[in-house]
Amino acid sequence: MSETLLPIGRFARLCRLSVKQLRHYDELGLLAPARVDPDSGYRYYRPDQARDALSIGLLRSLDVPLPAIGRVLSGHDPSEALGEVRDRMEADLERRRRALAALDRLLADGLPSVPVSVSAEPARQVLVVRDAATEATISAVTSRCVARVLGLLDGAPLDGPLVGLFPLDLTDEFTIGVAAGAGAGDEVLPGGTFAVATHVGPYNEIALTAHALLAWCGDHGHPPGNALREVYLSDPRSTPPERLVTQLMIQLEDAQ
Asked: How far apart are CA 227 and CA 131, in angstroms?
């Protein structure tokens, strides 16, 4: 055996990895040993493989997933592979910030409870833009839909406020929409009887008012429809987040 090869134990110490980790990375195809003894199955590594092993350890310490690490080691542009990971981390961090803000409000005010009214709403001709979202991306996708629908209107006057359309059943990925009343709209936003609550505050705390609205439906024996509408009554460009007014609406199935 060449003297330039290191047994797995010595190589592990050099790279500050465990033998178990090195075996796992071999099984995944991330870092294959330079030689495997055909009789004992023992693994040996070249010293110059330490750079890749140390890179794996560094990236794993930063919570970079193994598939992304594999792309980096195989020669893909690191800025692309790691940029995607960073974007996911940023989205997760933003979700955690929203959760902390909601917890702070619950600590201050207790479980949400808001006045709810019942309203008959007419059907409306609307223009709707839809896109796929997850719980982590729902805020960014909603903003993107707003921009797209306003772009399609191209300065045409709105017939009322923009309306966000969100499913009550949240799967791993779901479709959301933003509707704008317009003469050129090619869809009908159904009318009917709705339970209505008003949310005052940042958009990222709307879930608290939605919770209270759904709790009201349960308390009063009204099965909700399959969608939540958010009617944006304030312009976020000129209104402070704590003063944004959003009307939440859920169609009542037993009142259709």
From this structure: 15
Structure tokens at 149: 């629908």
**Rounded distance between C-alpha atoms, residue 155 and residue 66, angstroms:** 47
Q: What is the 3-state secondary structure (H, E, C) of 69-119?
A: HHHHHCCCCHHHHHHHHHHHHHHHHHHHHHHHHHHHHHHHHCCCCCCEEEE
61-100 tens-digit pLDDT: 999 999 999 999 988 888 888 998 998 898 888 878 888 8
Q: Which of 71, 193, 91, 207 lies closest to 141 in space, CA to CA?
A: 91
Q: How far is CA 166 from CA 7, 54, 229, in A?
A: 57, 45, 6
pLDDT digits (tens, 9 = 90+) for 206-246: 989 999 999 999 999 988 888 999 999 998 889 999 999 99
Q: Mapping DSSP to helix (H, G, I), strand (E, B) and coil, where does residue 40 land?
A: coil
Q: Which of 228, 246, 236, 243 minimizes the C-alpha distance to 147?
A: 236
